[in-house]
Structure formats: C-alpha cells, structure tokens
Amino acid sequence: MSGSHFPKLDRVDAYHKVTGQVQYAADFNYEGMLHAMTVPSTIAKGRVINLKTHSARQTGGVIAILTAHDFPPGTDESPAVLSNDISFLGQPLALVVAESLEAATLAAERVEIDYQQDAFFPTIENPASLREDVDPRSVGDAATAYSGSVYTVDVTYETPVQHHNPIELISTVALWFGGKLTIYESTQSADMSKGNVVAALGLNPADVEVKSAYIGGGFGQKGLPFQHTPMIAQAAMMTGKPVKYVIPRGQIFHVAKYRPRTQHHVQLGCDTTGKFSAIRYDVVQENTPDSAFAAADYHESAGRLYGIEHYHGTAGNIRVDRQASGFMRGTHPHPTCFAIESAVDELAVKINMDPVALRLANDTVTDPLTGRPMSSRFLNECLTQGADRFGWENRSHLPGSMTLADGTMVGWGVASGIFPASMAAGEATLRVYANGTTVLMTSGHEMGQGIRTALASAILKDLDIDPTKLDIRIGDTTAGPQFMTAGQWGSSSAVPVTSKVVRLLKQKFSELANGKNLSGSIHQKLAMLKRPYIEVKASELAPGQSPSALEELRQGGWPVAGPEYHEFTSMSYIAHFVEVHIEPHTKRIRVPRVTSVADCGSVISAKTALSQMYGGVVWGLGQTLREKTEIDARYGGYLNCDLAEYVVPVNADIGVIDAHFIDKPDPLCNSLGAKGLGELVMIGIAPAIANAVYHATGKRLRSLPIRLDDLLI
Ligand code: MOS
C-alpha cells in the first residue's frame, strides 16, 4: 500500500472557486438582511458603569442595540455572551444591528460608556506576575545525565505574539425562520459553533444548524467557538431578519485567538560521539486565565524529536490581561522546535560535528516518553534525502566561509520538525444515484487545504462514478456530526471512514447485482437494476479507541485519539534545508531556496499535499523573518493590527521551494497510513533559517522574528 495508488486529481473545487461560485459565509445575502457591529471596550480591565445608547439609537437605520441585559447570565459551563466585566481591550460590550453596515458602524461609535478601570498587565514583564507551573513531564534522571555529559549547551530562546491573518475575515450570517436558526459561519468546527449557540441561548439543538462549507483560511483561528455567534443568532431572533456580521481585521487582532509569546530554556548534553545524553527543557508562556492553550503540551513533541533517554520537561503560565490565546498553525511544536533545533545546532558547533550527522546519530524506534514503539519514523530518511536534494555535502563547515562575488554572505541551515499524528472517530454516508450523481456526507471542513480533493481521491480510487457530479457535503451539521477540523487530523480522520464507506457500498452493490453481468458505470448499472440509488453508512474509530468515541462525535464531545495510542505512538516528521543570502551592508536577509522532505505517512492527494508544503514553507518564512504582533503596553492592545503593518511574506520574498515526500504508509495509525501534514510543514523552518543565519554570519540569534536590525548591531 502506498499513497501513490490514489488518483492524482486537480483540486475538485478549483473551477467553482475561480469562477466565484463558491459561497463563503459572508457571501450569503438576503432581502432585508441587517448588519451588525460590536462596541469594543476601550479599556483593558475593569467594568462598565454606564452604557449610554441614546445617541446611537438616533442614528438613521439602527434597528436594535443588544447589551448584557439581552442575554442569560453566564454559568460555569457557558460564560455570558455579553458581560459588563472587562478582561481585555477590544472586548465586545454591545452589539448594534442596523439596516446597513455603515449605520451599524457609525452607531457603534456613538455608544458612550463610563468605565471603572482596574490596573492591568498586558505583558509578561510585569514584576508582580507569578509563574504558575503545570505538572512536569520526566523520564529517566535528566539532572544526573546532564551533569555527566561531555558537551552541553545551556541557552534560552524566545518567540513573539503572532496573529493568524487568513484572507477571509471571521464572518457569521444568522437566519431565523419558522422557529429554526440557520447559521452560515467561517468555522473549523460547525458542531462546536452550534453547541455554543445552543448553550448560550438555551435553545433546542434540533432547532439550530451551522453551515461552513468553505472557509478562506482557518489555521486554528476559526477552530474554537466565537463569542459573537450567539449575539448574531440572538439579533436574528429578536429582529426576525437575517443578520450579517463580519469582524473588521483590526478587531480580529483584538478578539480572535493568537500565538502566545513563549520563552524556552534548553539544557542539552551529549557524549563524545554526539549521542544526546539528556535534555532539560523549560517553557514559560504568557496566558490568560480562560485559555485552552495548555503549557504542558510543549513536551508532547520535544520529547519525541530524538532518542533521548533522560528528559525533564517543565512549563508554566504567566497571566496577562489580554484576550485568550489559542491554536495557530504549528501550535506548540513550532516554538519548541525553534528552541531545540537551534540548541542542537549550537551543540553541533560546539563539538565540531556536521548538524545533519548529529541528528542522524540520535534516531530512535521507541517513543522516549512512553517506552512504546513509534508506529513509523522516517526522520532520518527525511534528513538524508533532503541533504541529497539540497547538495548539503558541498557546505563549507565554518561560519562566514561561503560568500558570493559581490560580498553576499551565504548560509546553509538544517532543522527538523515534528507534529502529533492524531485521528478523530468519523462517520460517513455515501449515496450513488442511477442519474449520475453521487453524494458523500462526512465530517470535515474545507479551509482551502484541500480536504474535498482528498475525499474525492478516496472515492474515485475504487468507485467508477461520474466525478463531475460528486457532491461532498462537509462542514454542515445537517450532513452528520461536524467535529473540529484541526490538529492536522482532517484527512487522516475523514479519508479512512470514506474509504470504508466506499468498500461497503461496493459490497452492497455486488449483492444487489447478484452475479448479473452488467456493463457501464455504477450509475448505469443501477439504472439497469432499476434502482434509483444505493446508500451505505459507515463509521470508523482510531486505533484502540472505545466505541463510545462515536457517541462523543455525535454529542459534540472530543472524539480524538493520539499521538499516544494504547500500543504505540505516531508522529509526523519533516526536515528542512535552507539557504540564506545576507546583503553585506544592509544585512537584508533573503531565502533563495528551501528543500523540505516530509514523513506524513501516505500521501492521499498529491497536488493539495504539495500545496500544503508550499504554503507551510512560505508561512515558515513569515513567522521567522517578518511576523510579530506589537503590544501597546499603555493600553493593552495591538499596534500593528492590519496587513500593512503586520508584515507577511510577499511573492518577491519566495525563492525555489523543493518539496518532497517519503510517502511510506504508517502501518498502524489508521487504515490508510496517513499521519497528517498540515501543521507539520511549517515546523522547523524557523530554526533552519536561524541556523543558516549563524552559518552565514557567525551570529546566533535566539529570538524571533529575525530581522536585519538584529544583524546590524
Ligand atoms: Mo490547527 S492550529 O489545530 O487549525
């Protein structure tokens, strides 16, 4: 079994996308539709004393202004939709609904609020902040093994606050009709969005449906439920009209999830041959009291990069008065790999060993954290194939030893990346009609990563249907459970259950045909059998997962397993090789080429997998060389909250990207051997670039982003 057995499809939704036929949430428009705008808090902490709506209500076109009084009080399970207690700058305090976006915006600006202000601390620099430790993760005796190491590095690294900036803004359109609420929303979890509305407004789940058929980029920003969705739903119910809300980008910076700032202390030791003896690794992150972004998760990946017998991982949170941080592509392994893969490079320099050879010498077949086998691990193949493709053998060893004729400093760097291979329980319904159409209904969200194309590949691989009439219904609570698509488990969850439903449908069809010799496509054969359609349902569990996970899936619970399964651990791996060019006077940093080789198990959809690689490498360049959200410590907000000042890479920043897959199926993690790729790709780009900058200049930069001013001083 190999990924290459899947048909090589073009993106199945490309034509509809480029011809504008695909509707994103904000594309839904209705006669008489109203527009909503929130009133953001202008203080970072305190409470509303008086919220005056008189002049706002005088604004022409204003229909309603919703405040905390219009919503049930919060409970432990479901916080109040609107509250007069303020915990971050930009927190929505009221919602204006008007006949036009302009009227809603103007009226929102006219709402006057008297505040009682409290002291607030927006950054971890506050001397009064206490670090709150989480449980450590330890195997062996790292303290003793580290102190017995022949060579050590003892270094700290830092990564900044970063914000996702998908081109599609966060959007919701709510319709209330005939006692039923239909919500079109840009969400990676239609089920959670529905659950949020049901809980916050005390509705009957049967009366609420959420549809998120296409998302214009998610990256984790659209994973967890939004505070505003119940507000928009309530506005639609109160006014009896469809209501649209699109969050302006500047406000998205202040209300959406983001990557928290992190600090890492790495102590890594090895023996005379370069074999790692121990690692002691401490991470501290800024966090809010209500954030789901767990500090302990940094160790899930760090402990599995290499075969290190003695591991001591500690972590803590420092509370800040901002909105809750959350998942952003690459999540914990991105800052972790920046720290550890930089430290590995520092150790390679110290022992005068090639950094690829040092990594190759520290492979493992067992999971150091659990002692159980890794289901598959081809990191060394990623490193050797990447080195080959890149021409690593031509690297001159010493920093500053590779220059071009015009004085440009050249650096070559390498680093590895890792990400958990998880899987969610899934269900699928497949219906093939005699009239030529086929409908697949399963769990998944299309954020542009290409899950529809992967699902189509799984169907077309084994079933002779008309591909032009294949309707894939996902991201829609009427099409079955819609668990969150995130954590790179999208395809590795939805494709196995789809392959299974295809298998079952073929079985059912052959029973139906009962040995008759029929010719033509399955549609034609159904017609000959005088059957209008054939339908099959299937469900699939992750390895060793209890069947109760299917109930979790249906009830809006958490049906995910991995990366630690009962018998084994599954992780995806990647190796990146980068070349940097540094202009000698301005120290401008360019990355003319990157070679990335991924071990993601089977490749199901070759074209979209390759696109994931390109996109991940591009974003990797952005998070390393460009992106940092600047906090205004005076007010607690963000300063560069637009695409002009939150700088991301542009076309001219991107050189050659040589992306390649090992494409060996994982034998255990699911029936297709697909470990997942979406998050993995951008992990390890940052240290590869930092290591290349060191190789070019001899300067070790331990804080992201790396910018030319870091090289000028
Ligand atoms: Mo992902 S950062 O879990 O959408």
Structural class: alpha+beta
Rg over CA atoms: 26 Å
State the separation between the terminal residues, measured CA to CA: 54 Å
> pLDDT average, as an integer?
96
Unreliably modeled segments: none
Tally of helical segments:
18
Helical fraction: 25-40%
Any ligands, ions or cofactors bound here, and which? dioxothiomolybdenum(VI) ion
Instruction: Tell the overall outline.
Output: globular
Biggest sheet, strands in spatial order? 3-5-1-13-10-11-12
Task: Report the strand count.
Answer: 28
Topology:
Elements: H1 14-18, E1 34-40, E2 46-52, H2 54-57, E3 62-66, E4 85-86, E5 92-98, H3 101-110, E6 112-117, E7 131-133, E8 137-139, H4 142-147, E9 151-159, E10 171-177, E11 180-185, H5 190-201, E12 208-211, H6 228-239, E13 243-246, H7 249-255, E14 262-270, E15 276-287, H8 298-302, E16 310-319, H9 333-350, H10 355-360, H11 379-390, E17 409-420, E18 423-424, E19 426-433, E20 438-442, H12 451-462, E21 470-473, H13 490-513, H14 522-528, E22 533-540, H15 548-554, E23 560-561, E24 571-582, E25 589-599, H16 606-625, E26 631-632, E27 637-638, E28 656-661, H17 685-697, H18 708-712
Parallel strand pairs: 1-13, 11-12, 15-16, 20-21, 25-28
Antiparallel strand pairs: 1-5, 2-4, 2-6, 3-5, 7-16, 8-16, 9-14, 10-11, 10-13, 14-15, 17-24, 18-23, 19-20, 19-22, 24-25, 26-27
Helix pairs in contact: 5-6, 9-17, 12-13, 16-17
The protein binds dioxothiomolybdenum(VI) ion.
Dioxothiomolybdenum(VI) ion binds next to loops.
